[in-house]
Amino acid sequence: MQGAPLVTKLNSAHKTIVPLSDLVSIGGEEVVIIGGPCTVESLSQMETVARHLKSAPIQALRGGVYKPRTSPYAFQGMGIEGLDILASVRQRYDLPVVTEVMAISQIEEISAYADMLQVGSRNMQNFDLLKALGQANKPILLKRGLAATIEEFVMAAEYVASHGNSQIVLCERGIRSFDTYTRNVLDLGAVAALRQITHLPILVDPSHAAGKRELIADLSRAAIACGADGLIIECHPEPEKSVSDARQALSLEDMAALVRSLEPIAEAVGRKMYGRELVISARHSEEIA
Ligand code: PEP
Ligand code: MN
User: Fold this and answer.
1) Nearest by Cα to 205 from 181, 180, 179, 175
2) Which atom of ligand 1 is nearest to the CA of 205?
3) At 119, phi and psi to the nearest 5?
4) How far is the CA of 36 from the centre of ligand 2 (A)?
5) Global pTM value
6) What is the architecture, at CATH level 2, of domain 18-288?
7) 8 A C-beta contact, residue 25 and residue 269
8) For the chain, what is the radius of gyration of the CA atoms?
9) How far apart are CA 161 and CA 273, in angstroms?
10) Quick one: what percent of the chain has pLDDT higher than 70?
Protein backbone atom coordinates (compact mmCIF):
# COMPACT_ATOMS: atom_id res chain seq x y z
CA MET A 1 0.00 0.00 0.00
CA GLN A 2 1.33 3.42 -0.95
CA GLY A 3 2.75 5.32 1.98
CA ALA A 4 3.10 2.26 4.21
CA PRO A 5 6.51 0.89 3.24
CA LEU A 6 7.20 -0.95 6.47
CA VAL A 7 4.05 -3.03 6.72
CA THR A 8 3.44 -3.59 3.02
CA LYS A 9 4.05 -7.08 1.66
CA LEU A 10 6.93 -7.27 -0.81
CA ASN A 11 6.09 -10.62 -2.34
CA SER A 12 3.65 -13.47 -1.77
CA ALA A 13 6.01 -15.30 0.60
CA HIS A 14 6.70 -12.25 2.73
CA LYS A 15 5.22 -12.92 6.17
CA THR A 16 6.11 -11.73 9.63
CA ILE A 17 5.98 -14.15 12.53
CA VAL A 18 5.35 -12.56 15.91
CA PRO A 19 6.48 -14.64 18.91
CA LEU A 20 4.37 -14.51 22.06
CA SER A 21 6.56 -16.88 24.06
CA ASP A 22 9.24 -19.52 23.45
CA LEU A 23 6.52 -21.91 22.33
CA VAL A 24 3.85 -19.81 20.70
CA SER A 25 4.08 -17.53 17.66
CA ILE A 26 1.46 -15.81 15.55
CA GLY A 27 1.79 -15.98 11.78
CA GLY A 28 3.50 -19.36 11.41
CA GLU A 29 1.98 -22.64 10.27
CA GLU A 30 -0.03 -23.04 13.46
CA VAL A 31 -3.25 -21.21 14.05
CA VAL A 32 -3.22 -19.45 17.44
CA ILE A 33 -6.23 -19.32 19.75
CA ILE A 34 -6.36 -16.68 22.48
CA GLY A 35 -9.19 -17.02 24.98
CA GLY A 36 -10.41 -15.43 28.16
CA PRO A 37 -12.93 -13.05 29.63
CA CYS A 38 -13.61 -9.53 28.48
CA THR A 39 -12.60 -8.29 31.92
CA VAL A 40 -10.40 -9.75 34.63
CA GLU A 41 -12.77 -10.04 37.61
CA SER A 42 -10.96 -12.18 40.19
CA LEU A 43 -8.10 -14.62 40.66
CA SER A 44 -10.45 -17.58 40.91
CA GLN A 45 -12.19 -16.57 37.66
CA MET A 46 -8.87 -16.39 35.79
CA GLU A 47 -7.58 -19.64 37.31
CA THR A 48 -10.74 -21.48 36.27
CA VAL A 49 -10.41 -20.10 32.74
CA ALA A 50 -6.72 -21.00 32.49
CA ARG A 51 -7.18 -24.49 33.94
CA HIS A 52 -9.99 -25.35 31.55
CA LEU A 53 -8.58 -23.75 28.46
CA LYS A 54 -5.02 -24.92 28.80
CA SER A 55 -6.13 -28.37 27.74
CA ALA A 56 -8.55 -27.16 25.02
CA PRO A 57 -5.86 -26.19 24.03
CA ILE A 58 -5.67 -22.45 23.76
CA GLN A 59 -2.23 -20.83 23.49
CA ALA A 60 -2.70 -17.49 25.25
CA LEU A 61 -5.00 -15.80 27.73
CA ARG A 62 -6.83 -12.54 27.29
CA GLY A 63 -8.41 -10.31 29.93
CA GLY A 64 -8.79 -6.56 30.21
CA VAL A 65 -7.77 -4.70 33.35
CA TYR A 66 -8.13 -1.20 31.89
CA LYS A 67 -11.47 -1.23 30.12
CA PRO A 68 -12.71 1.30 27.56
CA ARG A 69 -16.41 1.37 28.59
CA THR A 70 -19.08 3.34 26.78
CA SER A 71 -20.42 4.68 30.08
CA PRO A 72 -18.11 6.34 32.59
CA TYR A 73 -20.26 4.73 35.32
CA ALA A 74 -19.62 1.18 34.09
CA PHE A 75 -16.87 -0.92 35.71
CA GLN A 76 -13.56 0.44 34.43
CA GLY A 77 -11.39 -2.60 35.16
CA MET A 78 -9.31 -3.84 38.10
CA GLY A 79 -6.16 -1.94 37.11
CA ILE A 80 -2.94 -2.99 38.83
CA GLU A 81 -4.73 -5.58 40.94
CA GLY A 82 -5.90 -7.20 37.70
CA LEU A 83 -2.34 -7.16 36.35
CA ASP A 84 -1.20 -9.08 39.44
CA ILE A 85 -3.87 -11.68 38.75
CA LEU A 86 -2.76 -11.99 35.13
CA ALA A 87 0.87 -12.36 36.20
CA SER A 88 0.05 -15.11 38.65
CA VAL A 89 -2.07 -17.10 36.19
CA ARG A 90 0.48 -16.54 33.42
CA GLN A 91 3.16 -18.10 35.54
CA ARG A 92 1.15 -20.94 37.07
CA TYR A 93 -0.37 -22.08 33.79
CA ASP A 94 2.50 -21.19 31.52
CA LEU A 95 0.27 -19.14 29.21
CA PRO A 96 1.26 -15.84 27.60
CA VAL A 97 -1.21 -13.03 28.33
CA VAL A 98 -2.67 -10.25 26.22
CA THR A 99 -4.24 -7.16 27.79
CA GLU A 100 -5.32 -3.73 26.63
CA VAL A 101 -3.28 -0.57 27.05
CA MET A 102 -5.38 2.58 26.89
CA ALA A 103 -2.85 5.29 27.66
CA ILE A 104 0.82 6.07 27.21
CA SER A 105 1.16 6.22 31.01
CA GLN A 106 0.16 2.53 31.26
CA ILE A 107 2.69 1.14 28.77
CA GLU A 108 5.57 0.59 31.16
CA GLU A 109 3.44 -0.94 33.89
CA ILE A 110 1.56 -3.29 31.58
CA SER A 111 4.77 -4.29 29.76
CA ALA A 112 6.11 -5.63 33.04
CA TYR A 113 3.20 -8.11 33.25
CA ALA A 114 1.91 -8.91 29.77
CA ASP A 115 3.34 -10.67 26.72
CA MET A 116 1.35 -8.64 24.23
CA LEU A 117 -0.20 -5.16 24.42
CA GLN A 118 -3.64 -4.73 22.90
CA VAL A 119 -4.67 -1.46 21.30
CA GLY A 120 -8.45 -1.40 21.40
CA SER A 121 -10.67 -0.28 18.56
CA ARG A 122 -11.37 3.02 20.22
CA ASN A 123 -7.67 3.83 20.22
CA MET A 124 -6.70 2.63 16.76
CA GLN A 125 -6.08 6.20 15.68
CA ASN A 126 -4.69 7.49 18.96
CA PHE A 127 -1.50 8.44 17.16
CA ASP A 128 0.43 9.47 20.25
CA LEU A 129 -0.29 6.08 21.81
CA LEU A 130 0.74 4.32 18.58
CA LYS A 131 4.00 6.26 18.45
CA ALA A 132 4.76 5.43 22.06
CA LEU A 133 4.05 1.75 21.40
CA GLY A 134 6.61 1.96 18.63
CA GLN A 135 9.16 2.27 21.42
CA ALA A 136 7.71 -0.59 23.48
CA ASN A 137 9.57 -3.83 23.63
CA LYS A 138 6.44 -5.99 23.34
CA PRO A 139 4.31 -7.30 20.48
CA ILE A 140 1.26 -5.17 19.74
CA LEU A 141 -2.24 -6.47 18.98
CA LEU A 142 -3.78 -3.67 16.96
CA LYS A 143 -7.57 -3.88 16.70
CA ARG A 144 -9.37 -2.28 13.80
CA GLY A 145 -11.27 0.89 14.65
CA LEU A 146 -15.06 0.74 14.87
CA ALA A 147 -15.39 2.50 11.53
CA ALA A 148 -11.85 2.44 10.16
CA THR A 149 -11.14 1.81 6.51
CA ILE A 150 -8.59 -0.83 5.57
CA GLU A 151 -6.18 1.94 4.62
CA GLU A 152 -6.58 3.67 7.98
CA PHE A 153 -6.01 0.34 9.71
CA VAL A 154 -2.83 -0.34 7.76
CA MET A 155 -1.60 3.21 8.39
CA ALA A 156 -2.16 2.79 12.12
CA ALA A 157 0.14 -0.24 11.98
CA GLU A 158 2.64 1.82 10.00
CA TYR A 159 2.66 4.37 12.86
CA VAL A 160 3.82 1.68 15.29
CA ALA A 161 6.32 0.21 12.83
CA SER A 162 7.77 3.59 11.85
CA HIS A 163 8.46 4.34 15.49
CA GLY A 164 10.53 1.22 15.91
CA ASN A 165 8.30 -1.74 16.74
CA SER A 166 7.68 -4.21 13.93
CA GLN A 167 6.10 -6.86 16.17
CA ILE A 168 2.52 -6.08 15.18
CA VAL A 169 -0.50 -8.34 14.79
CA LEU A 170 -3.65 -6.92 13.17
CA CYS A 171 -7.08 -7.84 14.50
CA GLU A 172 -10.33 -7.61 12.54
CA ARG A 173 -13.13 -7.29 15.13
CA GLY A 174 -16.08 -6.14 13.10
CA ILE A 175 -17.10 -2.70 11.89
CA ARG A 176 -20.20 -0.59 12.44
CA SER A 177 -22.99 -0.94 9.96
CA PHE A 178 -26.70 -0.24 9.72
CA ASP A 179 -27.81 -3.61 11.04
CA THR A 180 -28.17 -3.88 14.79
CA TYR A 181 -28.92 -7.62 14.86
CA THR A 182 -25.23 -8.29 15.25
CA ARG A 183 -23.10 -5.94 17.35
CA ASN A 184 -20.83 -5.26 14.37
CA VAL A 185 -20.24 -6.78 10.96
CA LEU A 186 -17.29 -9.15 10.71
CA ASP A 187 -15.39 -7.99 7.65
CA LEU A 188 -13.76 -11.11 6.28
CA GLY A 189 -13.23 -9.23 3.05
CA ALA A 190 -10.78 -7.10 5.00
CA VAL A 191 -8.96 -10.23 6.18
CA ALA A 192 -8.57 -11.39 2.59
CA ALA A 193 -7.45 -7.90 1.52
CA LEU A 194 -5.01 -7.50 4.40
CA ARG A 195 -3.41 -10.80 3.48
CA GLN A 196 -2.67 -9.31 0.08
CA ILE A 197 -1.53 -5.93 1.35
CA THR A 198 0.56 -6.64 4.42
CA HIS A 199 3.06 -9.17 5.76
CA LEU A 200 1.71 -8.75 9.30
CA PRO A 201 -0.19 -11.64 10.92
CA ILE A 202 -3.96 -11.22 11.21
CA LEU A 203 -6.23 -12.37 14.01
CA VAL A 204 -10.01 -12.32 14.01
CA ASP A 205 -12.14 -11.45 17.04
CA PRO A 206 -15.55 -12.99 16.36
CA SER A 207 -16.81 -12.03 19.85
CA HIS A 208 -16.94 -8.27 19.39
CA ALA A 209 -18.01 -8.73 15.79
CA ALA A 210 -21.06 -10.87 16.54
CA GLY A 211 -21.91 -9.73 20.04
CA LYS A 212 -23.95 -12.94 20.41
CA ARG A 213 -22.44 -16.19 21.66
CA GLU A 214 -24.45 -18.41 19.33
CA LEU A 215 -22.82 -16.86 16.24
CA ILE A 216 -19.20 -17.15 17.34
CA ALA A 217 -18.39 -20.73 16.30
CA ASP A 218 -19.53 -20.20 12.72
CA LEU A 219 -17.62 -16.93 12.39
CA SER A 220 -14.51 -18.54 13.88
CA ARG A 221 -14.52 -21.34 11.35
CA ALA A 222 -15.11 -18.86 8.53
CA ALA A 223 -12.18 -16.74 9.74
CA ILE A 224 -9.76 -19.66 9.73
CA ALA A 225 -11.03 -20.76 6.31
CA CYS A 226 -10.38 -17.23 5.10
CA GLY A 227 -6.71 -17.37 6.13
CA ALA A 228 -6.68 -15.69 9.53
CA ASP A 229 -3.63 -16.60 11.62
CA GLY A 230 -5.75 -17.12 14.70
CA LEU A 231 -8.63 -16.00 16.85
CA ILE A 232 -9.16 -14.03 20.03
CA ILE A 233 -12.39 -15.10 21.71
CA GLU A 234 -14.17 -14.07 24.91
CA CYS A 235 -15.25 -16.78 27.34
CA HIS A 236 -16.15 -16.98 31.01
CA PRO A 237 -16.79 -19.66 33.65
CA GLU A 238 -20.32 -18.25 34.09
CA PRO A 239 -20.98 -16.37 30.84
CA GLU A 240 -24.22 -14.66 31.92
CA LYS A 241 -22.48 -13.26 34.97
CA SER A 242 -19.67 -11.58 33.00
CA VAL A 243 -19.09 -8.05 34.25
CA SER A 244 -18.82 -6.86 30.64
CA ASP A 245 -19.86 -8.26 27.27
CA ALA A 246 -21.88 -11.06 28.90
CA ARG A 247 -24.05 -11.61 25.83
CA GLN A 248 -21.07 -12.64 23.72
CA ALA A 249 -19.16 -14.70 26.29
CA LEU A 250 -18.82 -18.42 25.54
CA SER A 251 -18.83 -21.04 28.27
CA LEU A 252 -15.50 -22.79 28.78
CA GLU A 253 -17.02 -26.03 27.47
CA ASP A 254 -18.25 -24.32 24.30
CA MET A 255 -14.84 -22.76 23.87
CA ALA A 256 -13.12 -26.15 24.01
CA ALA A 257 -15.65 -27.62 21.55
CA LEU A 258 -15.08 -24.69 19.23
CA VAL A 259 -11.32 -25.20 19.26
CA ARG A 260 -11.80 -28.87 18.37
CA SER A 261 -14.11 -27.97 15.49
CA LEU A 262 -11.42 -25.79 13.91
CA GLU A 263 -9.06 -28.67 13.23
CA PRO A 264 -10.46 -29.83 9.86
CA ILE A 265 -10.84 -26.24 8.71
CA ALA A 266 -7.22 -25.43 9.54
CA GLU A 267 -6.10 -28.57 7.76
CA ALA A 268 -8.17 -27.70 4.69
CA VAL A 269 -6.29 -24.42 4.30
CA GLY A 270 -2.85 -25.92 4.94
CA ARG A 271 -2.57 -24.88 8.58
CA LYS A 272 -2.28 -26.77 11.83
CA MET A 273 -3.65 -26.30 15.32
CA TYR A 274 -1.21 -26.25 18.19
CA GLY A 275 -1.23 -29.72 19.74
CA ARG A 276 -1.81 -30.44 23.40
CA GLU A 277 1.39 -32.50 23.38
CA LEU A 278 3.48 -29.48 22.48
CA VAL A 279 2.25 -27.35 25.32
CA ILE A 280 2.24 -30.12 27.88
CA SER A 281 5.57 -31.72 26.96
CA ALA A 282 7.30 -28.36 26.88
CA ARG A 283 5.97 -27.55 30.30
CA HIS A 284 7.00 -30.95 31.56
CA SER A 285 10.54 -30.50 30.27
CA GLU A 286 10.67 -27.11 31.96
CA GLU A 287 9.59 -28.68 35.21
CA ILE A 288 12.38 -31.23 35.08
CA ALA A 289 15.01 -28.77 33.84
C1 PEP B 1 -11.95 -6.06 24.14
O2 PEP B 1 -11.14 -6.78 23.53
O3 PEP B 1 -12.49 -6.38 25.23
C4 PEP B 1 -12.38 -4.80 23.50
C5 PEP B 1 -12.83 -3.78 24.22
O6 PEP B 1 -12.32 -4.87 22.16
P7 PEP B 1 -12.56 -3.75 21.03
O8 PEP B 1 -11.52 -2.70 21.29
O9 PEP B 1 -12.37 -4.51 19.77
O10 PEP B 1 -13.96 -3.23 21.21
MN1 MN C 1 -15.09 -7.25 25.43
Assistant:
1) 175
2) 9
3) -100, 120
4) 10
5) 0.96
6) Alpha-Beta Barrel (3.20)
7) no
8) 17
9) 28
10) 95
